[in-house]
Amino acid sequence: MPETPIYGPGRVPVKLVVNGQTHLLNLLPSETLAEVLRGELGLTGTKVVCGMGDCGACTVWLGSKPVYSCLQLAIDCQSQPITTIEGLKRNGELHPVQQAFIADDAFQCGYCTSGQVMSMAALLERNPDPDEEAIRSAVAGNLCRCGAYPKIVRAGKRAAEMLRVSKEREAPGE
Questions:
Q1: Total-model pTM
Q2: Per-domain residue ranges for the chain?
Q3: Which residues are CB-neighbours of 54 under 8 A, at least 6 positions away?
Q4: 96-168 has which CATH code?
Q5: DSSP result, 78-144
Q6: What is the Cα–Cα distance from 90 to 68, expressed in whole angstroms?
Q7: In angstroms, rounded to a whole number, what is the distance separating the alpha carbons of residues 69 and 66?
Q8: pLDDT, tens digit, for every residue of 34-78?
Q9: 12-86 CATH fold
């Protein structure tokens, strides 16, 4: 029977791949992914509001799955790539979901926005043509205290359309 590694009580080496970059860190086994992203790596787009998995402001992708980074121990995230809001940008351009949030003014205070965007972008990766119910379901775990939900749904529809148009341009005549 293989031995299970024992970590701690002090810092241990951890290798995280965040937004395509490999980071070799010495972390406490108790540090959450949110703490490491913000404190160690300076990726402050990931917000920590509740710290209990209730609000969704800290949503990032672990692999291609949206997760609450406040509930993930960083040490357990070594086997999958991590994507934050900062990692959605491609070739210097904002992701279509980010562009749609701006165009539709789908935020007020903005504190929930990165989590909302990450959840919406994950939905569009899985389902490029979601209906309103699918959009609402995808962001159901992301709370907006300002009540911008109608604009968030509108932004999701706009982002889906933007992605469709972009794909049509990339593959004309197919």
A1: 0.91
A2: 12-86, 96-168
A3: 143
A4: 1.10.150.120
A5: TTS-EE-GGG--BTTB--HHHHHHHHTT--SS-TTHHHHHHHHHHHHHH-SS--HHHHHHHTTTS--
A6: 23
A7: 9
A8: 999 999 999 999 999 999 999 999 999 999 999 999 999 999 999
A9: Ubiquitin-like (UB roll) (3.10.20)
